[in-house]
Structures are given as structure tokens and as C-alpha cells.
Amino acid sequence: MDLKLIILYFILGGAIVSAVTYLGSMGKGITAAFIAMFPVVTVLTFSLIYLEKGAEPTISYAQGLVILTPAWLLYLAVVIFTMPKIGLAGSLMLGVPAYMAFSLLIMKLMNAI
User: Fold this and answer.
1) pTM recorded for the entire structure
2) What pLDDT is recorded for position 39?
3) CA torsion, points 88, 12, 63, 78, in degrees to nearest 10?
4) What is the mean predicted confidence (pLDDT) over 81-108?
5) Mean pLDDT throughout 26-52?
6) Between helices 40-53 and 3-25, what is the axis angle to 10°?
7) Tell me, what DSSP letter sits at residue 1?
8) Are the C-beta atoms of 1 and 52 separated by less than 8 Å?
9) Quick one: which of 10, 34, 13 has its CA closest to 23?
10) Cβ-proximal residues to 10 (8 Å cutoff; 6+ apart), any chain
């Protein structure tokens, strides 16, 4: 892969994360979430995968997003419900492993790993 493309991906990702962080820290959680979840990230990712390797890997990636959505929702639920009780660090220490475990279970059931 071309180093220029890697740098471009890094800059694009950093710009999105920066915008989301800025808006979230200003108390604009819904706007920040809108930007974080806006299809621009998947549009860019789909486009870049497609340009690099074509339709088949792009479709595979999209299917992976759908298949792993329940694990992402579990992660969000754990963070939402535990953060008020145990704080950010604790909720992330529970949410991320929950996401990973459920994702691995899903992938194993799908014979993807």
C-alpha cells in the first residue's frame, strides 16, 4: 500500500475523531454522535477498499459491519449503564472486553476466525 494513502487515511481519521471530540466536549453529544456515525466514515472506507481491491472485499466488510452490530450495541449498553456507577475507565474496562468477547463468539459461530 502506498505511504501517501496511509498518511491520507490517518489525516481523515484524525480529523473526524477531532471533530467528534470537540463537539462532544462542548456538550453537543447528539451532534458528535451524528458525525461519528455519519456514513462518511463508511463511504470513505467502502471507497478506499473498493479502489484498492474491488467489490468482493468491500461487500465482505459491509457484511462484517452488519454481523458485528449486536456486539457494538452491547458495548454501548455496558458503557451507558455502568459509567454513572463506576466512571469512564471502569465502564470502558467492562465494555471493550464485552465487545471483544461477543464479537469473537459471533465470528466463531460464523466460522469467520
Assistant:
1) 0.76
2) 82
3) 0
4) 97
5) 88
6) 170
7) -
8) yes
9) 34
10) none
Q: Are 75 and 95 in contact (CB under 8 A)?
A: yes
When pLDDT is averaged across residues 67-87 and rounded to a whole number, the result is: 97
Nearest to 39, CA basis, from 55, 56, 16: 16
Q: Which long-range contacts (CB under 8 A, 24 or more apart) does 89-93 make?
A: none
DSSP-derived secondary structure for 32-85: HHHHHHSTHHHHHHHHHHHHHH-HHHHHHHHHHHHHTHHHHHHHHHHHHHHHHH
What does the DSSP 8-state code read for residue 13?
Answer: H
Alpha carbon 79 to chain centroid, angstroms: 15
Please say if the pLDDT value at position 6 is more than 90.
no
